C-alpha cells in the first residue's frame, strides 16, 4: 500500500504541517491502495510565500527563457509516460483509449504553450502608446479528479507561458497521480518556488488560496457549485478568475445524418472518459421522424459496449471514481425511470460479469423531455438522454434551454448547414462530427459553465494584464 506523506513547496518535497490522512482506492476493485497526508492552511501559506518570492524573477524572464522551461517540462513528462499511465490506471481506472490520450496530451500542452509564446506579441505599439502584456501576479490552480495529470500540466503550462509562479491544489482523490506527475515536473528543473503543489481539502487548502491577498489569479476546473463559492471569495481581493465548470452538452443529430458514421461519434461524445467529463454530450436531440430508427441503432450499439478495468483492452468504459460517485449515478438512473423515461439500454446495478468495482451499466434513456432532471442536471456518468425534436429551430431551442453552455455537438452531412446550426448554439465550443480537438483553440463555457477561456492566446491572456505606456 502506497503512503504519500510529502507535498511540493519551493522546489522540494517536504513533509506537510497538516496531519490528516485520506484513503486512496482502486475503483476497479474497491480495494484501499494507499493513504495521503493532507496539507493544511499553514502549508498553503508556505506555498504562497514561496511562489511570491519566485515571482519577481519569473516576471522578468524573456519569451525565449519561458519556451526553454516549457520544453524541459514537456520532455520530463514524456520521459515518465509509463509511470504516469500506471498511476492513472490504478487510481482512476480509465479505459485504455483514454489512457492512451491522456499522458501524451499532458506532455503536449507544454509544447502548445511554447508555440503560443513564440507567436504572441507581449509588446505592441498602438498609436503613440506601447502596450505591454505583463503577468497578472502569483497564480493558484485548483484541479479535479477526472483528469488530474492533464489539468495540472495545462494550468502550469499557461502560468509558465505568462511568466508567473503558481500554487496548485489537486484533488485529494488523485494523490497517486499527483505524486507521479510532480516527480516528473520536478525533474524539469524549474527555478525554486515557481511550481508548488499542496494536497488538501478544498475547504481547507482551496479556501486559503482563494482568500489570500498574495494570490492574484485563480484558475479552477470543477463543479459549478464550487466555482460559485470561489468566485464570491475571490471577489474580496479582486482576484482575476478563470472557471471551467459543469456541462450538459447537447448533440444535435440532423435529419441528413448517416447513422453508420454518426452513432460511433454519439457514443464517443456521450461516454467519453466513462461519462466523467464536463464536455460529455449527454443530451441527444433526434429528428422525430427518425426517432425509432436512431433508438434501434443506439440500443444495439450501447449493448455492445463493455465496462471493465483498465487492464482489459476490450473495456470501453471504466469505473466511477468512488463509491459516492457510483451511488450518485445510480440515483439518476432510478430518477429517470421515476420521471417517466424509458430505458433503451443499461439500467441500475453493475454490468453483467462485474461483481466488484464501481462500474456502471452504460445507460440510454428514450422518451426524455428537456424538463426532466436527467436532461437538465449534470450526472457525470455514462448516461445518455434521447430527446425528439420537430425541426431545426426546435432543436436549437432545446439545445440552448439549459443553464450550461460548455461544449455542444452537431452531426450531419451538410457542412454549411452544420456550421449554421453551430452559430446558433450557446456554447463555448461546438464540435462538428467529432472533429479532433485543436489544442490552441479557446476552451471555456457560456452561462453556468464558467468564466474566461483556457488554451492558446486566449488562455494566455487570462494570466496577463495590459499596461499602456503613452508617449
UniProtKB/TrEMBL annotation:
UniProt-listed Enzyme Commission number(s)? 1.2.1.3
Checking InterPro entries in the record gives: Ald_DH/histidinol_DH (IPR016161), Ald_DH_C (IPR016163), Ald_DH_CS_CYS (IPR016160), Ald_DH_N (IPR016162), Aldehyde_DH_dom (IPR015590)
Domain Aldehyde dehydrogenase, by residue range, is: 14-469
Kindly state which keywords UniProt assigns to this record, in alphabetical order.
Answer: Oxidoreductase
Task: Report the PROSITE patterns cross-referenced here.
Answer: ALDEHYDE_DEHYDR_CYS
Reaction(s) the record says it catalyses: an aldehyde + NAD(+) + H2O = a carboxylate + NADH + 2 H(+)
Could you say which protein family the record assigns here? Belongs to the aldehyde dehydrogenase family.
PANTHER family referenced in this protein's UniProt entry, alphabetically: ALDEHYDE DEHYDROGENASE, ALDEHYDE DEHYDROGENASE-RELATED
Name the chain's protein.
Answer: aldehyde dehydrogenase (NAD(+))
What's the source species for this entry? Answer: Shinella lacus
